[in-house]
Design brief:
It is built from 14 helices and 18 strands. It is an alpha+beta fold and 474 residues long.
């Protein structure tokens, strides 16, 4: 239950500074500390009695704020005459007042106790302040996730953005569909009341994070929260190379995506579907067309180049058409070296598995089921090849792939194996195999139902990285 602030000194000082803020001498909020980005705004509103904390002396700045709570804040802060409520709910008077002011209609919100989104806050604020900037065209491209704004809230979201009231994040997104927090709501209310606290953008068109290449409206150095806002939760998160967490989106292979995250920022992107570029290069583009734009070279089945602070690999289909089959973008600031601890190897194995399934789906084949037993069989063989310095489907004891699968307990009526040596990343491993006609047949075969991948790394071995893919049908 919320309460009005306990003040250590019940003194409100009206400052005559440029901002003319009223501040409280000392607040007993254990989680609002000077220096936090919302500190002055929360303190100001608390001093005016517009917003309150909780009985345990916390403000809980990261908690969401409900529709009803924000309506109360906005109407009280702007000193609106309140109308009598039509129900017994505590917030009825604020809802009635908001509707009579024309902030929204009776059908806009079905539940006033749910968290309010940033787009919905924008609507309330824009209508309450009667914002109506007619020239929005120069601002649209400044908002990276403009296309994510619900149609009903596009204009009002632009209005509060242009007014400097609801601003974006460092990656130039506004996350319109995210619930607003109590701290965000406090800052917005203060900006409503005080023009000098607003952060008004310049009408300069597109602000660029990384030029040239993006995948599904996602670019290098955008935030993890933005990724989640448009893609949702990943199918799986694995640890991987270059100090990254790899977020694999494989629930819909038509929109397959692998994203490398470091410290909350997107540092790597992979896709085998359509991508956007200012250079005109796309899926199916030929190597010669890439060479007209980028300097680089073909290495491990990809044309590799650097561009605008990014390392880019255009994976080529060297069997069918010499065209671009996929793109891998990596921030050049990432280390070029990688460690191969067990969690990294495990992550690489799963990424190869997902890459196989993404390719099968693209070629109209059913996706496969991960098999721990097949992965174990593959790992044993990869390690054996590294330890004993050979590279063959037949091990030194004369066993064939299906013999090794039986040894780990696999009961099959179809089995196949792919081997790779010396390819350093899951992407290089996969496309190296795809560009080998015999291995390509195994990857695209309609016969298997299961796949396990086993990878072993030994710096002192001939190939250093050995990969075994074991396919089978039960």
């Amino acid at each position: 239950m919320k309460f009005k602030h306990i003040l250590l000194l019940i003194i409100i000082l009206i400052l005559t500074s440029q901002n003319s803020y009223a501040t409280v001498d000392t607040l007993v909020y254990t989680d609002v500390v000077e220096g936090q980005w919302f500190y002055e705004d929360v303190t100001y509103l608390s001093g005016l009695g517009i917003i309150n904390g909780y009985e345990d002396y916390t403000f809980r700045p990261d908690n969401t704020i409900t529709v009803a709570e924000f309506l109360k804040l906005a109407l009280v802060a702007t000193d609106q005459p309140l109308q009598p409520g039509t129900t017994t709910q505590w917030y009825s008077t604020y809802v009635t007042t908001a509707i009579e002011l024309g902030l929204f209609d009776t059908n806009t919100f079905a539940d006033y106790n749910r968290p309010i989104t940033r787009a919905e806050i924008s609507m309330v604020v824009a209508q309450l302040l009667e914002l109506n900037n007619s020239d929005t065209s120069l601002y649209i491209n400044q908002i990276r996730d403009y296309n994510m704004i619900p149609e009903a809230y596009v204009n009002t979201s632009l209005q509060v953005y242009i007014a400097g009231i609801v601003t974006g994040y460092e990656d130039q997104t506004i996350l319109p569909n995210n619930p607003a927090s109590r701290s965000e709501a406090s800052v917005i209310i203060v900006r409503m009341l005080n023009n000098e606290r607003r952060v008004v953008p310049e009408p300069i068109g597109l602000l660029t994070i990384s030029k040239g290449y993006s995948v599904q409206n996602i670019e290098i150095n955008m935030t993890e929260s933005y990724l989640e806002s448009i893609k949702g939760s990943p199918t799986e998160i694995v640890l991987g190379q270059f100090g990254l967490e790899w977020w694999v989106y494989a629930n819909d292979y038509d929109n397959f995506l692998i994203v490398g995250i470091q410290n909350g920022l997107i540092k790597s992107l992979f896709a085998n579907q359509a991508f956007s570029s200012e250079t005109g290069i796309s899926i199916g583009s030929s190597q010669s067309s890439i060479e007209k734009i980028h300097s680089g070279n073909v290495s491990q089945d990809a044309f590799k180049t650097t561009y605008d602070g990014m390392q880019i690999a255009f994976y080529l289909d060297l069997v069918d058409n010499d065209g671009v089959e996929a793109i891998w973008i990596k921030d050049s600031s990432l280390s070029t070296r990688s460690t191969y601890e067990t969690p990294v190897i495990d992550g690489m194995e799963k990424m190869v598995f997902y890459l196989v399934n993404a390719t099968r789906a693209k070629f109209g084949q059913p996706t496969l089921i991960w098999s721990d037993l097949a992965s174990l069989s593959g790992y044993i063989h990869s390690k054996d090849m590294a330890d004993n310095d050979y590279f063959s489907h037949t091990n030194l004891e004369g066993q064939e792939p299906w013999d090794r699968m039986v040894d780990v307990g696999i009961d099959y009526y179809y089995a196949a194996e792919n081997l790779s040596g010396g390819y350093n990343t899951p992407f290089d491993i996969h496309f190296g195999l795809m560009n080998s006609p015999g291995h390509r047949v195994n990857i695209l075969s309609p016969n298997p139902s299961h796949l396990g991948v086993g990878i072993y790394y030994d710096y002192n071995s001939t190939y250093r990285i050995y990969t075994t893919e074991n396919y089978y049908q039960e």
